[in-house]
Design a protein that fits this description.
By secondary structure, this protein is an alpha+beta fold. The chain is 20% helix and 39% strand. The mean pLDDT is 91.
Length: 179
């Protein structure tokens, strides 16, 4: 039995859970998320405790068991509290501005970068910090990674976009040896 998969999930009072065949819908104060589970995975609701079970002990079902439970848990956390990732911009002249549903980045290139924010994501930018917020954990992570990919931190001067608290190992530059 999967250690993660066998843990029950407590359903908060503000969250509604609806199951229709293998389609699971979770609604809370932040919105609604829908996910289609595999046909061999079953979700049981007993007095506000959700438990995920599998039909057999096949390799595929074992792999899906813990993953399905964690996806369901992230859906419940997302609609009740939401997720947030923080990015910081380091470099002279590097900056970010949120303009409606677009992010305007100046990252030392010959052109500015305009990033269109997908639905369900809220961006807050104040020059050197960007906050990515949303209820879908996967989407928040994907948008954060995409923004970081525009100028990843480089190891010599440490310039670029990094996650808040990310440790970037710095390398020693070339030295000119005396002959």
């Amino acid at each position: 039995m999967s250690r993660i998969g066998k843990n029950p999930i407590k359903l908060p009072e503000a969250v509604k859970y609806v199951e229709n065949n293998n389609d699971v819908s979770v609604t809370g104060p932040k919105g609604t998320l829908v996910f289609k589970f595999h046909k061999d995975i079953k979700v049981n609701n007993e007095n506000g405790l959700l438990s995920v079970s599998r039909k057999s002990d096949s390799k595929e079902d074992k792999a899906l068991h813990g993953t399905s439970r964690q996806i369901l848990n992230n859906m419940i956390l997302g609609v009740s509290e939401g997720f947030e990732k923080e990015l910081e911009i380091i470099g002279v002249g590097y900056q970010a501005k949120a303009q409606g549903s677009r992010l305007h980045l100046q990252l030392g290139y010959s052109h500015d970068i305009y990033f269109d924010v997908p639905d369900g994501i809220i961006l807050v930018a104040n020059r050197t910090e960007i906050k990515v917020q949303g209820m879908d954990k996967q989407l928040v992570g994907a948008v954060s990674a995409k923004i970081r990919s525009f100028r990843p931190p480089e190891p010599y001067k440490g310039k670029g976009i990094r996650y808040k608290g990310e440790n970037v190992r710095s390398k020693q530059g070339k030295t000119v040896g005396a002959k």
